[in-house]
TrEMBL record:
EC number: 3.4.21.53
Keywords, ordered alphabetically: ATP-binding, DNA-binding, Hydrolase, Mitochondrion, Nucleotide-binding, Protease, Serine protease, Transit peptide
Binding site for ATP: 562-569
Record-given protein name: Lon protease homolog, mitochondrial
Record-linked CDD domains: RecA-like_Lon
SUBUNIT field: Homohexamer or homoheptamer. Organized in a ring with a central cavity.
GO CC terms of this entry: mitochondrial matrix
Chain spans, region Disordered: 72-136, 779-810
Keyword Mitochondrion: yes
A Pfam short name: AAA
HAMAP family xref list: lonm_euk (MF_03120)
Compartmental location: Mitochondrion matrix
Gene3D superfamilies: 1.10.8.60, 1.20.5.5270, 1.20.58.1480, 3.30.230.10, LON domain-like, P-loop containing nucleotide triphosphate hydrolases
Gene name as annotated: PIM1
């Protein structure tokens, strides 16, 4: 079938119901050519008025043979006029009614029927044209019929009152569509009612405030008075239909209008339900004829909470189309449009659409529309565009539109310039990159070595390939390598990036050293290196056993607490050797800068990572043993709190992703075994202490020190003095004397110093005994050998072999015994721990704990005035006692008085005695509650005038009611007691477990007496005493004091007489 050219490529676009036009059910098939989209629009003159305005469109597809029901028949071979056989009100209705309403010709019937006369009775044609026709001929005839009959309803020329819609940011211009979103439910309901009533007209006015977004006008000052009279061409739900109260309306402005009067919305108390529930009036010709015509067509909107305005039309002033100024400005606008079109493709499309929509085809014929178009497509300021809209003088409007358009051209030129510059830079970089790649390829083919930067990058990549970097670290590495590749070696950033990559590739990502889970091996290593310390050794063996069962070992945080010199640091090295782990140690004593732990930021000059990252770099494994020394002495300064930084480091839940400030990538420290050392736990922050497993290391007793000295210290000192092959012997009795009279501290550091000193003295004695002549001859031989070597190398300086040690003759023997020990280390520092071989009444040996270990603490009590029946009681305290110890003294004094008053009321000692209590070695501060029973015993001993056994020592806190409370440091106190020659140790019953856990070598020779009440102490040290015995003691004390007083008076009198 040969199709007409215009329908050669066509599709069925829509089927529409034309009942609103014909007053009877008619169906229209609308065909749209694909190659000429504007054909139907130009044919029916629909460029200004969409077809959907006066019929409802139903989209769908039909077959080739399609029928227009009733009057218009498009079926193949049919005659559109054959059915007009005189049907009144039907055949001529399409002509008569339209002629009556629109004053146009009736339908052009190809038959012989009469034309409609406007009464609706035409059309009795016989339809003698019976020759078959093509369906496309019928379509052409139908198009002609529709062109003359389907005239769109005319736009009212005068519409004095309209619904006012405020428009934000840009004004509307006549002839150019604009979509507006309406959110106010009242305005939405009003717009829907307008569409139902066939009065889709509103006034659109620009808001003065750009930030304001409203749908009603409450004050006329909110908007510009000049706006546009617009027709709502279509509405559809906004936001995808999710919000029922909002819709999008497409406005088509027709003409300019001005507000004369604003009718503001209803009061706020108006009920929305009343507005919505009002019945919608049905509009029809019948009802229109019966009901009186309202004053305004929009009177029904008064019931809605919307803005109504009374408006008047604004007409352009008359102008001469041949005016040279107007034609010149028009030409300039067209030239500017051409310039913008070359720079901005979007403008090009808009200009093409505007040209096609102009029926005249010549913009010079309609300069007013050209000015509106220029303003409509420009992105100027709202006030400038409003000025174009308000201009009714065409010349003035053109000038303002040209100004706006010129600014748009400047913006387009600037945008084009920027775009070209960016493209030029990109092209330049692409060209440089391409040439650099070619240069690399040429160098590679020729075998020419690349520059140092390429070698450096290649080295970093080789290192990274050998490491198992996590994905996030690998990503950072790649970014930094790319950055380094584009930096010049002379740039400062180059060195920063290089140093960072150096650190990043030296961290042992995924590199772990194999661990030894052999229990026997670990036990042997620990025993070889250290004597005693069974608690520590058991904990390490437990750690190894768990790792052996699980197949893997997680990092732990251990904290060794003990006095100086007991081997806290050295045991850390032994643990690392037992586990076959790498060892790294750093001290935080006095540290005040948090950057030492967390690292510095890379922005600082000389920045570097923290100690932990440095440790990983040095040991090159992910599972080393890191020893953090002196955590109890960490400082705090204006640069941060390092102890808080250690919280993240030593927390097993957090250190799996430890973030160093310099590295700025998470580092897994969960496999690291952290060992911390401290002397006391009091100065360690509680949150930090909570993250560590504390193991207390007590001081050594004398026999432990002897074993350590014989097994470890003596061989080491002998070798360091060069006497390993000499007959120099430090006798056992000398070691015991050294420990007893020179080195009484809990550790062995001072003992090691003295042993080193002994062997240095011995070395000096041997050298003196050998004589200087033999030594001089050996040195001369060494000098001659060195001179000959230099001569052979022509005077060149060479590294010679180490000097050989001197051979000590076998006939030289040195023995250090207890008798000659003072010749090597000087006179003894202590002769005895005991101040009293026999203690007088009022003197008792107590025990104290210090950071250096345990020590003996004597408490002395004596009368500081003559005892008489008239003397007054008092208590004075000396010995640099701390606050806690002063309170213990007061408690002991009160308890002693109450005990005497309760059990021995006849003894009035505490009612008449003025007592002085003293703790010897006043230069040493003393504090703590554990001397309570010692002080009470001292006071009672004085009151009863009864001496205690000098081999008894005691410790325990006393309450006012006589209860003996638990104390700490039993091991250290037991060591001090044994060192002081004590045979009986009284301690609180609550410390029985601590006593039982003591090694047998400490408890050997000591008898422990656990007590829970002071009565047990009293009975043990004083024995059973009757009231009569105690009364006699008081009377004898009082009598002796009186005799002494009389003797003193006689002496004084004799002295006065002389």
């Amino acid at each position: 079938m040969n199709l007409p050219k215009v329908f050669r490529h066509a599709k069925i676009l829509s089927v529409g119901n034309l009942k609103p036009v014909f007053k009877q059910p008619h169906t229209l098939l609308l065909i749209q050519p694909l190659r000429n989209e504007t054909y139907l629009r130009s044919t029916f003159n629909w460029n200004k008025q969409p077809f959907s305005t006066y019929h409802q469109v139903f989209y769908g597809l039909k077959s080739k043979s399609c029928t227009v029901n009733h009057n218009l028949d498009l079926s193949e071979g049919s005659d559109s006029g054959s059915k007009n056989n005189g049907q009144q009100g039907e055949g001529g209705d399409s002509g008569g009614n339209q002629n009556n309403s629109n004053n146009s010709n009736n339908a052009d019937n190809p038959g012989n029927g009469n034309k409609g006369d406007g009464s609706g009775k035409g059309g009795d044609g016989s339809g003698d044209n019976t020759s078959p026709r093509s369906p496309f001929e019928n379509i052409h005839r139908t198009l002609h019929i529709l062109e003359t009959t389907l005239q769109r309803p005319s736009i009212p020329e005068v519409y004095p009152q309209v619904l006012a819609l405020p428009i934000a940011r840009r004004p509307l211009f006549p002839g150019f569509y604009k979509a507006v979103v309406i959110k106010d439910p009242h305005v939405t309901a009003a717009v829907k009612e307008l569409m139902k009533r066939g009065q889709p007209y509103v006034g659109a006015f620009l808001l003065k405030d750009e930030e304001l977004d409203v749908d009603t006008i409450t004050d006329i000052a909110q908007v510009y008075k000049v706006g546009v009279f617009s027709q709502i061409t279509s509405v559809f739900p906004a936001n995808g239909g999710h919000d029922e109260n909002s819709l999008t309306a497409v406005l088509y402005p027709h003409r300019r209008i001005r507000i004369n009067e604003l009718l503001p919305p209803l009061p706020a108390n108006a009920s929305e339900a009343e507005i919505i529930s009002q019945p919608v009036q049905q509009t029809s010709e019948t009802s229109a004829n019966k009901e009186p015509e309202p004053q305004y067509a929009t009177s029904f909107l008064e019931d809605y909470n919307v803005s109504l305005v009374n408006v008047e039309n604004l007409n352009d002033e008359q102008y001469n189309r041949k005016n040279q100024v107007i034609r010149a400005i028009t030409s300039e606008i067209v030239a500017v449009f051409k310039d913008i079109a070359t720079l901005n493709p979007l403008f090009r499309d808009q200009i093409a659409n505007f040209s096609m929509s102009q029926s005249a085809g010549n913009v010079f014929e309609e300069p007013a529309k050209l000015a509106d178009f220029a303003a409509a497509v420009s992105t100027g300021e709202p006030n400038e565009l409003q000025e174009v809209l308000e201009s009714l003088v065409i010349e003035e409007r053109l000038q303002k539109a040209l100004l706006v358009l010129k600014k748009e051209l400047v913006n387009a030129q600037l945008q084009s310039k920027i775009s070209k510059e960016v493209e030029s830079k990109i092209a330049k970089r692409q060209r440089e990159y391409y040439l650099m790649e070619q240069l690399k390829g040429i160098k590679k083919e020729l075998g020419i070595e690349s520059d140092g930067k390429d070698k450096l990058i290649e080295k970093f990549k080789e290192k990274a390939d050998k490491l198992a970097m996590p994905d996030n670290v690998k990503k950072v590495f790649d970014e930094e390598v790319n950055k380094l590749a584009h930096l010049e070696p002379a740039a400062s950033e180059f060195n920063v990036t290089r140093n960072y990559l150096d650190w990043l590739t030296q961290i042992p990502w995924g590199q772990s050293s194999p661990e030894n889970y052999n229990i026997k091996h670990a036990m042997k290593v620990l025993d070889d290196d250290h004597y005693g310390l069974q608690d520590v050794k058991d904990r390490i063996l437990e750690f190894i056993a768990v790792g052996k069962l699980r197949g893997t070992v997680e990092g732990k945080i251990l904290c060794f607490v003990g006095p100086p010199g007991v081997g806290k640091t050295s045991i850390g090295k032994s643990i690392a050797r037992a586990l076959s782990r790498q060892f790294y140690r750093f001290s935080v004593g006095g540290l005040t800068d948090v950057a030492e732990i967390k690292g510095h930021r890379r922005t600082y000059v000389g920045a570097m990572p923290g100690k932990v990252v440095q440790a990983l770099k040095k040991v090159q494994t992910e599972n080393p043993l890191i020893l953090i020394d002196e955590v109890d002495k960490i400082g705090r300064g204006h640069q941060g709190d390092p102890s808080s930084a250690l919280l993240e480091l030593l927390d097993p839940e957090q250190n799996s992703s430890f973030l160093d400030h310099y590295m700025d990538v998470p580092i897994n420290l969960s496999k690291v075994l952290f060992v911390c050392t401290a002397n006391v736990v009091d100065t360690i922050p509680v949150p930090l202490l909570d993250r560590m497993e504390v193991i207390h290391l007590s001081g050594y007793v004398a026999d432990e020190k002897v074993a350590i000295a014989s097994k470890y210290l003596v061989p080491t000192a002998k070798e360091m003095a060069g006497l390993q092959n000499s007959d120099v012997q430090l006798q056992q009795d000398a070691i015991e004397t050294l420990i007893r009279s020179y080195c009484r501290e809990s550790g062995v550091r001072n003992l090691k110093k003295h042993i080193d000193k002994i062997y240095r003295k011995a070395a000096l004695k041997i050298v003196r005994d050998i004589g200087d002549e033999e030594l001089a001859s050996e040195e001369l031989d060494n000098v001659e050998t060195e001179t000959s070597e230099k001569t052979k190398t022509n005077g060149a300086t060479t590294t010679t072999e180490p000097r050989k040690p001197l051979n000590v003759p076998s006939n030289i023997h040195v023995g250090i015994t207890a008798e000659n020990l003072k010749d090597y280390v000087g006179p003894p520092l202590w002769h005895s721990d005991r101040l009293y071989d026999k203690t007088p009444p009022g003197v008792v040996m107590g025990l104290a704990w210090t950071s250096m270990g345990g020590s003996a603490l004597y408490v002395e009590s004596t009368l500081d005035s003559i005892l008489s029946t008239t003397s007054k009681p008092s208590l004075s305290k000396t010995g640099q006692l701390g606050d806690v110890m002063k309170e213990s003294t007061t408690i002991a004094y009160t308890f002693a008085k109450s005990l005497m008053a309760r059990q021995y009321p006849e003894n009035k000692f505490f009612e008449r005695a003025s007592i002085h209590l003293h703790a010897p070695e006043g230069a040493t501060p003393k504090d703590g509650p554990s001397a309570g029973i010692t002080m009470a015993t001292s006071l009672l001993s004085l009151a009863l005038s009864k001496s205690l056994d000098p081999t008894i020592a005691m410790t325990g806190e006393l309450t006012l009611t006589g209860k003996v409370l638990k104390v700490g440091g039993i091991r250290e106190k037991a060591v001090a007691a044994k060192r002081s020659g004590v045979s009986t140790l009284i301690f609180p019953k609550a410390n029985t477990n601590d006593w039982e856990e003591l090694p047998e070598n400490i408890k050997e020779g000591l008898t422990g007496v656990p007590v829970s009440d002071y009565d047990e102490v009293f009975n043990f040290v004083f024995g059973p005493l009757s009231k009569e015995q105690v009364k006699q003691v008081w009377e004898s004390m009082l009598a002796s004091q009186s005799v002494e007083s009389e003797d003193k008076k006689e002496v004084a009198e004799i002295t006065g007489q002389l």
